[in-house]
């Protein structure tokens, strides 16, 4: 037969089980709430990451464009220097005079007023542009 003490022991164990279940339900609810908040935060951070990636792409495109423009500017400056160098070497080449002909070409004197308005760029050092 079942004794009164056995019933009390069973009742005590049932109470402990009910208390444990209630405690676990509370903890489960708190964990679900935390999970929900964390998932929302993850979504917000993913949006920020996408935004940063787009901005980084635009920045990279801008830098590449600026570098291409600098390359084009440098190339044109080198071409101008080479052209000026060819003109100088052609002008320095000795030309024999024939009788009655002058080596001096008929060059009109530049108007002083015009030359004052034009500003010559500073000479390049070692063939490099000073961009700063």
TrEMBL record:
It holds the Pfam family ZapB. Residues 108-121 have a biased composition (Acidic residues). The keyword Cell wall biogenesis/degradation does not apply. Residues 77-132 are annotated as: Disordered. The keyword S-adenosyl-L-methionine does not apply. One of its GO terms (biological process) is FtsZ-dependent cytokinesis. It comes from the Bacteria. Keywords: Coiled coil. Residues 7-55 form a coiled coil. GO terms for cellular component: cytoplasm. InterPro entries: Cell_div_ZapB. Residues 122-132 have a biased composition (Basic and acidic residues). This is Cell division protein ZapB. The lineage of its organism: Bacteria, Pseudomonadati, Spirochaetota, Spirochaetia, Spirochaetales.
């Amino acid at each position: 037969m079942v004794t009164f003490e056995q019933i009390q022991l069973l009742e005590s164990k049932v109470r402990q089980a009910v208390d444990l279940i209630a405690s676990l339900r509370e903890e489960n609810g708190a964990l679900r709430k935390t999970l929900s908040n964390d998932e929302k935060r993850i979504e917000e951070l993913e949006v920020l990451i996408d935004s940063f990636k787009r901005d980084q792409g635009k920045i990279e495109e801008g830098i590449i464009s600026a570098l291409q423009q600098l390359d084009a500017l440098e190339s044109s400056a080198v071409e101008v220097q080479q052209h000026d160098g060819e003109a100088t070497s052609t002008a320095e080449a000795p030309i024999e005079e024939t009788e009655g002909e002058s080596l001096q070409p008929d060059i009109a004197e530049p108007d002083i007023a015009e030359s004052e308005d034009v500003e010559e760029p500073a000479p390049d050092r070692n063939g490099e542009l000073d961009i700063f």
